[in-house]
TrEMBL record:
Keywords: Lyase, Pyridoxal phosphate
Protein name in the entry: Serine/threonine dehydratase
Needed cofactors: pyridoxal 5'-phosphate
PANTHER family: L-THREONINE DEHYDRATASE CATABOLIC TDCB, THREONINE DEHYDRATASE, MITOCHONDRIAL-RELATED
Organism of provenance: Edaphobacter acidisoli
InterPro entries in the record: Ser/Thr_Dehydratase, TrpB-like_PALP, TrpB-like_PALP_sf
Organism classification: Bacteria, Pseudomonadati, Acidobacteriota, Terriglobia, Terriglobales
Domain Tryptophan synthase beta chain-like PALP, first and last residues per copy: 21-316
Length: 337
């Protein structure tokens, strides 16, 4: 369990998920359009890795499918269970549908309606609990013990990390001159995977995590080298519903300490500005959790290593329609903001 994921495992995951998981495009952000939008213009070439273009609108399908495609026929017959507030739930539900197995998802009752609806539409069964991530996990473990379901954890598992790592492998293949990659961090599945793939395939590239200041447990953990846990009452304050996890996964933290160069925390208004910028300047739609990496690149360049080509991972695009409308209304009202 404690061994770090290898490049061979990541390449095997890449083969396993091919044809189900999309090899997502990398888009260069136009400086002229940033100027027109009166947005912050970076001193480097900026690229966006659009994981929002996965079939479920987020990177989570990579890890979920990689883990589930390795299950025995007996395990698939009994079904799988996970605990997630949204995107991982959809990843597991989508993979289950493709593999012909039943998926049960434990979700907090305050999960975005759009994510609940998407999960149900993929044929999964939802069990609701309270808002803390610890409650979701306890319920999933209880039901797994009772019905023989296989737990598909959201991030703290080698197969999940190897699946998410395929995103990093694609980046170094798509942009040979990349100098810095920034990925959002919550439980650490994406960041640990991306960093591992990049450092093993292209060791000179710097890898950075980005998270909300209101849920900056990963930054604290990274800097103190001790796994910090923040109470749900603190992490639930951020608008980034996908980044409210209270602590990094144990195995994820090991990978992050081994392969990540730094973690930057961004303010809520910077996250909103990054969403607005992406909506105005590109054809991509980011959910708040997916925009933290762009917020770090635009507003915290002084904290980041110097690089000519920077890739920000847009981890997901499942933006609540009301939030999108309010941001677009504000942009119209303050064109120079």
């Amino acid at each position: 369990m404690d061994k770090l994921v290898t490049l061979e495992e990541i390449r095997a995951a890449e083969k396993r998920i091919a044809g189900v998981v999309v090899r997502t495009p990398l888009y260069r952000v136009s400086r002229a359009r940033l100027r027109m939008a009166k947005a912050v213009e970076p001193e480097f070439d900026l690229y966006i890795k659009a994981e929002s273009e996965q079939p479920i609108g987020s990177f989570k399908l990579r890890g979920a499918y990689n883990m589930m495609a390795r299950l025995t026929p007996e395990a698939l017959r009994l079904g799988v269970i996970t605990y997630s507030s949204g995107n991982h739930a959809q990843g597991v539900a989508y993979a289950a549908r493709g593999l012909g197995t039943k998926a049960v998802i434990v979700m907090p009752e305050n999960a975005p309606a759009v994510k609940k609806a998407a999960t149900t539409s993929l044929g999964a069964e939802i069990v609701e609990v309270g808002p803390a991530s610890s409650e979701r996990r306890a319920k999933a473990e209880e039901l797994a013990a009772k019905f023989g379901y296989t737990i598909i954890p959201p991030y703290d598992d080698a197969a999940i990390i190897a699946g998410q790592a395929t995103c990093g492998l694609e980046i170094v293949e798509q942009l040979p001159g990349v100098g810095l990659v920034i990925a959002p961090v919550s439980g650490g599945g994406l960041l640990s995977g991306v960093a591992t793939a990049i450092k093993l395939a292209a060791p000179h590239v710097k890898v950075w995590g980005a998270e909300p200041e209101l849920a900056a447990d990963a930054k604290e953990s990274f800097e103190s080298k001790k796994l910090a846990e923040w109470p749900a009452s603190k992490t639930t304050r951020t608008i980034c519903d996908g980044l409210r996890t209270q602590t990094l996964g144990t195995l994820n933290f090991k990978h992050i300490l081994s392969y990540v160069d730094g973690v930057t925390a961004v303010a809520e208004d910077e996250i909103l500005a990054a969403i607005r910028t992406m909506l105005q300047v590109t054809s991509l739609v980011p959910e708040p959790s997916g925009a933290v990496s762009l917020a770090a690149a635009l507003f915290h360049a002084d904290e980041l290593p110097k690089a000519n080509k920077v890739v920000v991972v847009l981890s997901g695009g499942n933006l609540e329609p009301e939030l999108r409308k309010s941001l677009e209304d504000k942009s119209a009202a303050h064109p120079h903001h």
